[in-house]
Write a structure and sequence with these properties.
CheY-like_superfamily; Rev_trsase/Diguanyl_cyclase; alpha/beta; Alpha-Beta Plaits; GGDEF_dom; 22% strand; single chain; 15 helices; Rossmann fold; phosphoprotein; 18 strands; 417 residues; 5-stranded parallel β-sheet
Amino acid sequence: MQTTLLVEDAAFFEKAIVKKLHEVGRNQIMVARNYAEAESCLDLPIGEPDLALVDLTLPDAPDGEIVELCRQRGIPTIVFTSRLDPKVRAKMLDHGVIDYVLKDSPGSLDYVADLIRKLAQNPKIGVLVLDDAPVELDAIAQIVSKHLYKVYKARSSKEALETLKTHPDIKLVLSDYFMPEQDGFAFLKEVRRRHSRDQVVVIGMSSFANPDNRVRFLKYGAADFVDKNCSPEELLLRISQNLEFIYRIEELNNMAMRDFLTGLYNRRFLFDTAAPQMKGWQDEGDSGNWLALFDLDSFKEINDELGHDYGDAVLVNFATHLKKMSNQADYIIRLGGDEFCAILRNRTEAEVTDLLSNFLEQIDKTHVRCNGKMLQIKTSIGTARIEKGNLADSLRNADMRLYSAKRAGRGRLVSSG
């Protein structure tokens, strides 16, 4: 569990910060009101925190000694203080603190909360730094690592493109302009040939103040351009803000591909995303890829007699069982109404039959309660093998077998003929 050390001697700010920490999911909080209490917290046997949020001016440590304590313990630290002193701020940033934030407005607390939320995500996000100068490459990479990103380094366009290819977690590239062999423009064009703007963000960098370079980089598909001599804070802010664009696009795409009621993938996902993927799937021996269609029995009667609230409860319950049945490689999809689809990967026909037979047994034992009423769920299932990635044929064959299951008395599985 993530643990935060909060060092704050003002009761008002302590309560406000604790509330914000809870809002961003950091519920295990060690609170210290002075240096001595912070030291005692760090000596507790429960383990050291993975993040510290500290005030600089404490009753028994008025000159920022708390930052040195956290640095010695290797704890990433954010300074949140009322102390407006450029020299102290520069010193703290040189000591490696993640950020130095002033308590000068209500928005500053929101900024800290948003920063902490992002720090929890950043270790999963790859940032590639491309620069042919080793000293500058290492310096920029060190700045980026302060916000806990997974940092990759490359000294040539060729190396950077290979790194992008082998590390799909890379979401942002910081690219120098002046490089031997292939400059930043040529690199950017190649990146855009392989990755769209909402897949990989590119920020151009240069030590030379040339407006034409900025304009060309932006026209060729860069999201931003920074001077290499900008402050570390500016660079980290630009990285964060540009990554936020990708997060928003991913969120919108995910919403477009998900069924609102059940949270499953929807019909659009099946045809726009899964179908193209299927064309590259290969069977291995007896194992193959399978499509199963599910249709809830007598669902119209449930809606008509018990109401849509009960119908929705049945659909959500059924979707939960489908998710439990599947593994990470499978796709579970709500096609619409009471029709569902499962794409089952790398299984033999016998394994698919056993899996779905067991699923039917579980469903037979399932009852849904809503508004004091109880009802048993029933479903019919038809399956088909996905041959050569042909989704249309698989859907057609599975649908015919689903219809056969309905005619045979419902609550049945038909997997062939």
